[in-house]
Amino acid sequence: MQKMKLIVAVLWSVFAASGAFDLFGESEKFSDLPSLIPVNFGPNYNHDAVSRSIASWKPGSGRNIWELSGLREGDIMDSADKGRNVIIDPKNNWPNNTMVYRLMSGMTSKEKMVVKEAMELIMQGSCMKFRPYRHGDRDYVYIQYNDTGCWSLVGRQGGAQPVNLQRDACFIPGPVAHELLHAAGFEHQHSAPDRDDYVYINYTNIEEADYDQFEKLSANEYSEMGVGYDYDSLMHYSRSAFSKNGEDTIIPYEDVEIGQQEYVSDKDYRKLNVKYNCFYDADDDSGAHHSEWHHEGTGGSSPHNSEHGNTGHNNGNNHAGGNANGGILTNMFG
Ligand SMILES: [Zn+2]
């Protein structure tokens, strides 16, 4: 994995140095500022306190950085118009399983590299694709760094929806992938309707004011996509999430780790592929090199988005379980 990262980094620096390769495509060519959909931090949000808490987060602290963002379940931003945005309806999927993104100008190349790595993490085992904003796109994720916290709205909202990555804190591939998975339409694993079968929530270690961070969602609001509960999910909270005393708040009934923020789990990939109607065709007549992702074109439609014409067939450079041939670059920018 380190070697792979090195290769990608070297390739990137060669391309960047040559000027022949624009890392984020057209995203930054547009000087017009996006009109972002209004978001709601809530009445008691303390930007200074959250900003400090996020900035002082350390790996190995036993908490995930996004849990500190001060919003509903830590990092779920609600829309000021629509309120709570818990979305499982396919109409809020990204059309053609392609999330359109736009980067706030002024992002450093290091920050861009992290965003790219996060997208790569998601693409490695799924059919999800990302493409830079083009003039005329109406629905897209606007990746900004100028606000407090690491947060996202859930699912495609319609319009320009912000994903915030607090500078000098949230630019870590796993946490960025976590936020992008929210934008793809995923909620936190611990809010699954059936979570009490898998974890014990120890309220004695939670401030009463934070009880609502552990609310379960209904079956109308949450789907396991037929894949089931996943302790290993990138969307699972840590053991001491919202602890008032450092003691465990979420205790798995099995002897497992929870709260990893390094990678997208196997079940995360499967859920993503179910949600976006994708299947991996490894059984190819002419050999494994032609295996590819297929997409059955029911994964959402948009009255806004300029990209239509789903052929039901994605140009599958994504190979499950890793991409050893530099196809990442093709996927990202092709
Ligand atoms: Zn989250």
From TrEMBL:
Domain of life: Eukaryota
Signal peptide: 1-20
UniProt feature, compositional bias: Basic and acidic residues: 287-297
GO biological process: proteolysis
InterPro entries: Astacin-like_dom, MetalloPept_cat_dom_sf, Peptidase_M12A, Peptidase_Metallo
Xref: SUPFAM superfamilies: Metalloproteases ('zincins'), catalytic domain
Cofactor (UniProt): Zn(2+)
Bias (Low complexity) ranges: 308-322
Region Disordered, residue ranges: 287-334
Cofactor note text: Binds 1 zinc ion per subunit.
Residue numbers annotated as active site: 179
CDD domains in the cross-refs: ZnMc_astacin_like (cd04280)
Enzyme type, top EC level: hydrolase
EC number: 3.4.24.-
Residue ranges constituting the Peptidase M12A domain according to the UniProt record: 85-279
GO molecular function: metalloendopeptidase activity; zinc ion binding
UniProt keyword terms in alphabetical order: Hydrolase, Metal-binding, Metalloprotease, Protease, Signal, Zinc
Binding site for Zn(2+): 178, 182, 188
Pfam families cross-referenced by the UniProt entry: Astacin
Protein name: Metalloendopeptidase
Protein source organism: Cloeon dipterum
Biological classification of the source: Eukaryota, Metazoa, Ecdysozoa, Arthropoda, Hexapoda
